[in-house]
């Protein structure tokens, strides 16, 4: 048989090896490209260029919706850009667990509160408070969410904890008073 001859099998085998190599390299290049896009978007966001960062992050989430890192950063950047309704909506299906980064919990807490969802805000800030029980920003977030919620009574105790945490630090006390107005 002609096809069983060595001269035909060798080129066929070589073509198969080349095709598989290109497929593997192509997959690595795609992941690398996504990583580069993400790094660029994060750098843009850190430099205050939210309008440059958001299209890249949205594209990454559309391309790979199960990659939590892309979704986390989209929510955070939307919050930093004061697009609180969009941030709240983008975070709606995210489970707030032990692996949720602290910066994402803070972004969700802030944006949910600004978008009128006190319950989601309190859920997020409370999860963060478990990690940072003496953080003034976190305590303030919890207190504001409690004040906006259906039962604002617990806010008094939280505000007392907050004032004990900041002590006599006048700038922090003034910032708290401003936030409570």
Explained architecture:
- The longest helix is centred in the N-terminal third of the chain and has 41 residues, at 6-46.
- The chain has helices at 6-46, 50-63, 68-80, 84-91, 102-114, 118-131, 136-148, 155-166, 170-180.
- By secondary structure, it is mostly helical.
- It starts with 5 loop residues before the first helix and ends with a helix.
Ordered list of secondary-structure elements with their pairings:
Elements: H1 6-46, H2 50-63, H3 68-80, H4 84-91, H5 102-114, H6 118-131, H7 136-148, H8 155-166, H9 170-180
Helix pairs in contact: 1-2, 2-3, 3-4, 3-5, 4-5, 5-6, 5-7, 6-7, 7-8
How would you sum up this structure in a few lines?
The chain has 181 residues and is an all-alpha fold.
Q: Can you give keywords for this protein?
A:
single chain, 181 residues, mainly alpha, 77% helix
Q: How many strand segments?
A: 0
Shape: elongated
Instruction: Give the ordered list of helices and strands.
Output: HHHHHHHHH
- Helix percent reads over 70%
> pLDDT under 50 segments (min length 5)?
13-29
In oligomeric terms, what are we looking at?
single chain
Radius of gyration: 25 Å
Work out the strand percent.
Answer: under 5%
Largest sheet entry: none
Tally of DSSP helical segments: 9
Q: What structural class should be given to the helix and strand makeup?
A: mainly alpha
C-alpha termini separation: 89 Å
Query: Taking all residues together, what is the mean pLDDT?
Result: 86
